[in-house]
Sequence to fold (129 residues):
Amino acid sequence: MTNIHVLIPSYNCAEWIERTLDSVQEQTFQPRSVLLIDDASDQLSYAQLALQQCQNRGFSYLRNAKNEKCPYNLWLGVKVLDPEPEDVIFLLDGDDFLPGPETFQRIAEVYSDPDVWLTYGNYEPHPVN
Fold:
């Protein structure tokens, strides 16, 4: 069975973070772990909201003391998640969300093929209201 770990690097995503986390929580194939890294957002309201939303869902939350940028957050996230070599790390930006509840099920199916080591996806723009 494929273990999926979700890494969510974020910065100032207050208007999106609930939808992002909802889309992870609503998956039929549940990830082994979820880690949101707040890259020292300057929106204090975002930091408080992100922490509360993670706690309510049982997700892990880290907040950097200073803005470290994407490469550091990816390195830190992988280090904290501590996956096994065969595990999958799914990157989801803090202002993005999954298109439906079967996303991780599909990822698990794709990675059940031992010849698959890396995949990437595209995105669909979300209409602005």
Notes: The longest strand covers residues 4-10. The chain has a mean pLDDT of 93. The radius of gyration is 14 Å.
